[in-house]
């Protein structure tokens, strides 16, 4: 069964967007994954199909209505729908490769894209939405965050990645950042590739790559490096 993502958004025309191109695009074209975008405004109230209102208690901005969003969610779900229900939000649980892997192992997801200042808290509780953040910065809406999440999930689906090896080696599959990469020409603007990479000694190449991955991780992401050292005492 294909991974099926239903995205609830005020801008369904943003989808599939970049997901229609390259690796994810081919997966969608083959039917390994399905991304369907639904318009929340179809469930809006009144002549103007209003989806938002002013915040209770006053203040700036607008809040997405609980009743409108709940109707959109209920209409998008099958009776026995067991897919996780996500709300893209900077308040959410950080998106990690672990969560991506978990989602890729399931049948799909319902993904709500927030807009305005926020979403009425009651629909988050009432429809058991799990808030997910793609980082500590604020986007103007959840759509780009949903695309980032879906891109990361789709590339892990069975048969999607041409070279299975390249998936396993990459950043966060091991908890280290990736080692540097080089290709031809061997010298460019006076910079040579590290000699070990031309040595033909595969074991030495692997040792160099691990050492470089550790060096980069120690320098750039001491938080990840501590976790790695805890995993691999003494010799690594
Ligand atoms: N919506 C706005 N900002 C976001 C973020 N950082 N992550 C997920 N959804 C968002």
From TrEMBL:
MF GO annotations: tRNA (guanine(37)-N1)-methyltransferase activity
Reactions it catalyzes: guanosine(37) in tRNA + S-adenosyl-L-methionine = N(1)-methylguanosine(37) in tRNA + S-adenosyl-L-homocysteine + H(+)
BP GO terms, sorted: methylation
Domain tRNA methyltransferase TRMD/TRM10-type, residue spans: 4-226
Location(s) in or outside the cell: Cytoplasm
Main localization, broad class: cytoplasm
Binding site for S-adenosyl-L-methionine: 114, 134-139
Alphabetically ordered keywords of this record: Cytoplasm, Methyltransferase, S-adenosyl-L-methionine, Transferase, tRNA processing
Top-rank EC class of the record's enzyme: transferase
The protein's Enzyme Commission number: 2.1.1.228
Matches recorded under NCBIfam families: PRK00026.1 (NF000648), trmD (TIGR00088)
Subunit field text: Homodimer.
Record's function text: Specifically methylates guanosine-37 in various tRNAs.
Family indicated by similarity: Belongs to the RNA methyltransferase TrmD family.
Protein name: tRNA (guanine-N(1)-)-methyltransferase
Organism: Jiella sonneratiae
Gene: trmD
């Amino acid at each position: 069964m294909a991974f099926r993502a239903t995205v609830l958004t005020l801008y369904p025309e943003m989808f599939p967007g970049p997901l229609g191109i390259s690796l994810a695009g081919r997966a969608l074209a083959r039917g390994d994954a399905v991304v369907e975008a639904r318009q929340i405004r179809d469930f809006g109230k009144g002549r103007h199909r209003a989806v938002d209102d002013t915040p209770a208690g006053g203040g700036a901005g607008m809040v997405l209505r609980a009743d409108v969003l709940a109707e959109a969610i209920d209409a998008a779900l099958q009776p026995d729908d067991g897919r996780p229900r996500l709300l893209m939000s900077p308040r959410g649980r950080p998106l990690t490769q672990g969560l991506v892997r978990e989602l890729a192992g399931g049948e799909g997801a319902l993904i709500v894209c927030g807009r305005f200042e926020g979403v009425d808290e009651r629909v988050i509780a009432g429809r058991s939405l799990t808030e997910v953040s793609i980082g500590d910065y604020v986007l103007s809406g959840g759509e780009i965050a949903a695309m980032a999440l879906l891109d990361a999930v789709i590339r892990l689906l069975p048969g999607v990645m041409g070279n299975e090896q390249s998936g396993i080696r990459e950043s966060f599959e091991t908890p280290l950042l990736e080692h540097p990469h080089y290709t031809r020409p061997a010298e460019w603007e006076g910079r040579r590739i590290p000699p070990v990479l031309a040595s033909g000694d595969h074991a030495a190449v692997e040792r160099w790559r691990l050492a470089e991955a550790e060096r980069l991780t120690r320098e750039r992401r001491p938080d990840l490096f501590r976790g790695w050292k805890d995993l691999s005492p003494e010799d690594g």
